[in-house]
Structures are given as structure tokens and as C-alpha cells.
Design brief:
The chain is α/β, with parallel strands linked by helices. It has one domain: Alpha-Beta Barrel (TIM Barrel). It is 39% helix and 18% strand. The protein has an eight-stranded parallel beta barrel with strand order 1-2-3-4-5-6-7-8, surrounded by six helices. It is globular. The structure holds SN-glycerol-1-phosphate. The site of SN-glycerol-1-phosphate (1GP) has 14 residues, from strand 8 and helix 9.
């Protein structure tokens, strides 16, 4: 089914969504079937992407994932080379918190030859990088400044600007491996003013933090590092 519709329907039914993020650089393909036993039980989506992925690795991972799961696979690419039409959908990201044209529009232009004849569902997404207490790969690679967590108005206005510009999703990102996730105050402030789905990720590694994000208004939470480090973590919720 259309993935965006699935998200909208879940929100209407007050269901919260979970995505597990797999980084093609880090996943061991030999352990994939074991990992997927866990993921298949809990996740609504598998996000695939990383800040620095060698050419072809994403395609290989998605092909392999398709052997073991029917969970929709959504590309969350660090750059246009990670796009493969073997996935189901693509978060067409624009890093709207930063002022680096490469990640605002240049990467998107470079992706067009790959997208023009593909069947990927393309979901325009406003991607907002927020300080998570440590320099993360997104910050390094994109060379943009994360918005400090106390600048709530700026975060809200950035999210609203994304929505006014036609983005269909807003993603509040503390960065993979962040020390602390996006605060409940920020999630709540943005969610109250936004009428498109809200994704939250970065630094969420406990059941409590996951619930905090949902309670504050996140529609979809993304978990990467906590799952990579200890996939048994999934057994506790
Ligand atoms: C990164 O938001 C995701 O883009 C997930 O972050 O690896 O910290 O869970 P973590």
C-alpha cells in the first residue's frame, strides 16, 4: 500500500509507528535473517540509509531485505548515490535547518536521473537537524549547524516553513547516536502547530524515551543505534 497513506491512516486511528534504521555500512548481511526476526515483530517500516555508504551497498542490502521481510522499505539516504528502486519509498529529504545548498537542493537535482523512471513512492520531507549533545555524522557530512534545543521558536518556524513549502513530512533529527533525543517540549510545540505527520529520531535508546516521544506527539519514531548495539533491546517492549 501507499506508504504515506499508511502513515496518515495510522494517525487517524491514533496508532504510533516505529521505524528501524539500518545503515548499509554497518549491517552484516549474514546476520540479516536473525535481525529480521526481531524487526518483523515490532517495526512498521525499515528505513535504509547512512551518512557515508559505498556505492551499491544500499542496493545489496535492500535486495537481501526483500528476501526476508514484507515490511515496507523506505530509503533515508545520506546522498543521491544511495537511491535504489528496489525499495518501496524514498524520503526525499531537504535539510531545511541548514544553509548548505548541497543538501537543500543540489543532491535532489542529482537524484533525478535515478528517479525519473522509478516506481519509488517519493515523499517530500523537511529534515531538521537539532542539537543532540554531540557532533553527529549528519552534522559532519552536511556541514550545517544543528539548531540548539532551546531555540524552540526557530525549530517551530523551520518546520512550519517546510510545511508551507509543500513538504509532506517533517523529521526532527537529533542525529544518529545523539547523547540526548529531541525534547518533549520541542516535539509538542511542533506537533501542535503542524498538520502533517511528524517523524522523530536520534538518540532514542530506551522504552521510556520512545514513549516520551510518542506522548509528546511524534507520529513515527526512528531507532537505529539502540537496535544495532543490542537488538535484544526490542524484547523489552
Ligand atoms: C538517525 O534518527 C536516526 O538518522 C536514528 O538515530 O541511531 O540514534 O537511533 P539513532
Amino acid at each position: 500500500m501507499n506508504i504515506y497513506k499508511h502513515i496518515i491512516q495510522s494517525i487517524a486511528q491514533r496508532e504510533k509507528l516505529l521505524a528501524v534504521l539500518l545503515d548499509p555500512e554497518k549491517v552484516n548481511l549474514k546476520e540479516l535473517s536473525h535481525l529480521l526476526e526481531k524487526i518483523n515483530k515490532k517495526a512498521d517500516f525499515i528505513f535504509v540509509g547512512g551518512s557515508t555508504v559505498s556505492n551499491g551497498d544500499t542496493d545489496r542490502l535492500v535486495t537481501k531485505l526483500k528476501e526476508f521481510t514484507r515490511i515496507p522499505i523506505v530509503l533515508f539516504p545520506g546522498d543521491y548515490t544511495q537511491i535504489t528502486d528496489k525499495a518501496d519509498a524514498l524520503l526525499f529529504l531537504s535539510l531545511i535547518s541548514g544553509n548548505n545548498p548541497e543538501y537543500l537542493i543540489q543532491q535532489q537535482i542529482k537524484s533525478v536521473p535515478k528517479l525519473i523512471n522509478s516506481n519509488l513512492e517519493i515523499i517530500p520531507t523537511g529534515y531538521i537537524l537539532i542539537d543532540g549533545g554531540t557532533e553527529t555524522a549528519v552534522q559532519r557530512v552536511s556541514n550545517t549547524r544543528p539548531i540548539p534545543q532551546n531555540e524552540t521558536d526557530l525549530i517551530l518556524h523551520t518546520a512550519k516553513a517546510g510545511a508551507f513549502a509543500g513538504k509532506k513530512l517533517i523529521y526532527l533529527e537529533a542525529g544518529s547516536g545523539a547523547k540526548y533525543p529531541v525534547s518533549q517540549k520541542i516535539i509538542n510545540t511542533v506537533k501542535r502547530e503542524l498538520n502533517i505527520p511528524l517523524i522523530v529520531g536520534g538518540g532514542i535508546r530506551s522504552k521510556q524515551q520512545l514513549e516520551n516521544a510518542y506522548d509528546a506527539g511524534a507520529d513515527l519514531v526512528v531507532i537505529g543505534t539502540a537496535f544495532e548495539k543490542n537488538n535484544l533491546w526490542f524484547d523489552i517492549f
